[in-house]
Amino acid sequence: MALSLTDEDDLETDPVKGGWVARADALLDQGQSAEAAAFCLTTLATETLPVITAANLVLILRKAGQSTEADRIEAELIDQLRARAARTPDDPRPQINLGRLLYGLDRFDEAGDVLGAALPRDPLNLRAVMTQTAILLRQGKPDAATALWQPIFAADPGNGKLPLDLARILAYGGHLGPARAMLDRAEPLCRANRHEFEFVADAIRGTKAATSQAAMTVELFDRFAGSYDKNLAALGNRGPQMVGLVLEALALPRSGKLAILDAGCGTGLCAPLLRPYARTIHGVDLSPGMLAQAKKKKLYNHLTRSDLASIGTLPPGPFDMIVSSDVLVYFGDLAPVLSNFAQILKPGGWLILTLELTDHPRGWTLNPSGRHKHDPAYLKSALQAAGFTAPKTRIDGDLRHEFGQPVRGFAVAAQRLALAYPPPPR
User: Fold this and answer.
1) What pLDDT is stored for residue 1 in this prediction?
2) What is the rounded CA–CA span in Å between residue 371 and residue 177?
């Protein structure tokens, strides 16, 4: 098997070409181990893959019962990257890629040794720092992890986002004391991203400030609009691919006849998947910066600045389908948004959405990332209360990675009831 690797992490989240891990994960979650193994083997043999994607496919192959093949491919991948590192001993990047591969293969101690040797030669490599931070936190060493960030802080001393990110990472690893100390460092620097800071601080400090979700969203996504696609690629974002798997499971005709609302369209990552089904795609988002990026892709018939929680800002529809990928994680209580969706969706129309997974007794919880996780039982109840069916299709899998750990999530499809109570007048 000829294995081909690339440094381009964003290949994984290309909505047309990528999504390899999401597809393999979905097959495994559906009990189709043989199909998952075959898909992994074919993809590894025929595609040029990002390092972490290749590592994840090897892990899935092993979970699918193909340990011998997984061991052989793992050894080949490691040998390939070790050979690259040996050919260019003065360049730390191949060594960093080797460390990231070993980390992705759950060989944490080896990864830590490799990255520990490479980082002194490239201390500002954020991907390497993030990976080594995750390793040190697994080892219970928050002080050593924090020390890795000092060159990064020193290189950009006025950037409050950097200590805020580290606060998130420390809290996510359960180190609340160091996380709160890092919040104290970040707070005076977070003037331009005050709403984001307060949103994250609420989760870490256990407080409830008067934080505006809408203001935080605009602040956050306007700032990152230009680099959003690459940032999500680095996190292994698979939301669009999960939406694609739901569409495949529904087996809807690709007839180009549907009026589709992309609710929280961002930069337009879902649009290529929706286009074959759509007569029109109307994208809405609260962030002007994200809408400007979506416009450049020329896949939407209409783009509108809208707040999903405010019915008066939404296009009236009616729509045949509403898709909301990686958006409702910014809401706790879903009732207002689902009610708004029901008012602009045709009876019998499809709602497809992704959420991150929790079993919190309240139904949702706010995490240090500033994102909410939701319980599937809560979602079912909220959908039915808003006039939808219970989910008719559900795909489970890793939606993304945060702080070196997979974030488990799910995508569902439900229909608006044909005999639901009429929506209130707009």
Assistant:
1) 56
2) 21
